[in-house]
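Ticket #4471: structure output looks truncated?

Reporter: J.K.
Steps to reproduce: submitted the chain below (482 residues) through the standard prediction queue, then opened the result file.
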Amino acid sequence: MIKINTVIVDRSKIDFKLILFGIFVLAAIWVGLFLPWIPSLSVLGHRVIMGLIITVGLWVFKPWGIPFSVSGCFLMMILLINGMPPGIVFSGFTSTALWVLIPALFFGFTLIRTGLGQRVSFLIVKAFKPSIGGLLLAWVVIGLVLSALTPSIAVRVAIVMPLALSCVELCNLEKGSNGRGLILLTAWAMVLLPGTGWLSGSLLGPIIMGLYNATPGLEGIITFSSWSKVALLPISIMNLFLVVGGCLIFWPKEKLMISKEVFSEKYRKLGPITKQEKTAAAILIISFILFASSQLHGVIDAAICLGGFFVLTLTGVIKVKDISCGINWDLPIFVGVIMGLSASFMEAGISSWLSGVLVPLLAPFASNPWLFALVVVVSLFLIRFFDITGLVPTMAIIVPIIPEVYEQFGINPLVWVTLFILAGKCFFMSYQNMFALVGESILGESGWTAKQMCKYGFVYLASCFIALAIAIPYWKSLGFFS
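Returned output as attached by the reporter:
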C-alpha cells in the first residue's frame, strides 16, 4: 500500500507539469491555426509565435527532462518548416557574442580544473578577521575577483559555496540560524551580482550583447565601456545596500569563536601554487585588462576571448579531451537559438507588430524617467515568476522594440540593460534563479532556509529600487532620457 501511494504522488507531480505544458501547447495551436491577429500579423508571424509558445513551455516546465538546447532545436525546426530562411534561423550562431560566451565558459572551467579559483578564495578569506563582518567583506572581494576571472556564475557558485559551507561549519553556526543564513546567502549573492556591472562579469553580458547586435538600430552600441557606463554605478549601489540590508535582517547575536589560523591552515593544505595555476592566472588577468581597455586598442571582445582560449590550450592548461566535455554545451546551443530570435522576429514581421502593441502601452509613463523605470522593473520582476530562464526569452521579445521606444520617447537603449540585469537576477523562491538551485544542490540540507531566501529576495528588491533612485539622475546627466 505504501508503494502504491508513493507512485500516485510521483505521478501527480509529473501530471501537474504536463498539464501546465499542455495549456501552452493548446494556446500555441490556437494561435497557429486560427491566426487571431490577421491581418496585422502575417501567417508566418503566427506560426513563429506558435513555435515560441511551445518552446517556452518546454523551457519553463522541462517535461520529460528535455534540455534547453534540444527544445531550442525544436523551435528552429518549426521555423524552417514554415519557410523561414536558414540564414535567419541560424543567425545567432554567427553572432560575435556567442564566440565570447564559448571561450568564457572554458575560462570558468580553467578556474576549477587548475584549482586556481579555490586558491584565490582561500587566500582572500584568510586575509580577513574571522568575524561576521570580516567574512562578509571577504565574500565581496572574492565575488569581484572571480567575476573578473570568469563570467560563468555557475563556476563561481561551484567554487565559493563549498568554501562558505566549510566556514559556517568551522564557526559552529547552527542550521537555520541567522548567522549561517547571512554568511551563505551573502557568499552566494556576491558571486552572482557584482560582475553584472561590467560586460564580461557574467554570461548575461554576451547574451544581451548578442540580442542587441541582432537588432537593426542597436548594432555595436554595447561595449565593455558602454555597459560599465550605464550599469556599474547602479549595480554597485544595489550590492552595497543588499549587503547592508542582509546584515540588518540577519545579523546574529552570537560572536564567532574561531581562530584566523584555521583558515590559514586550510590554505596551506592546498600546497604550493602550480605552474598551471600561474599560467591560467596570467592569461585570465591579461584577458580582463584587454576587455577593460578595448577602447584604447580596438580589439573586439570575441577576439580577446578566442585568443585566451587558444593560449590556454597551447600551454596545456586546457587539454584536447576537455574541448568536448569541459563545458556544458547545452548552454551555447540554447543561447545561439535565443540570439537568432531577433532576426526571425524581424523577418516574420513580429517586431513591427509588437511595436504597435507594446510601445503605446509605455506612452503614459515614458515621459517620466522615474515612473518608466519603476513600471518596467516591477513588470519584469512579475514576469520572472513565470520566465525562470533568467528573462532570456522575454528579452528576446522586448529587445526588437527598443529602437522604436528610443525613437518615440528618447529613452536610450542602454538604460534597458540595467533593468534587464536587476530583474533577470531576482530571487524570491529558488526556482526563479537557476544559480540558487545550483547553490542549494551543493549545500544540501546544510544551506539557507526557504524563508531566509524569500526575505533576502525582498532585501534585493528594495536594494534595486534604491539603486534606480540614484541611477536615474545619473542617467539623466548623461542624456539617456531626452
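Triage note (M.O.): checked the attachment and the full C-alpha cell line is present. The mean pLDDT is 90.
Status: closed, working as intended.
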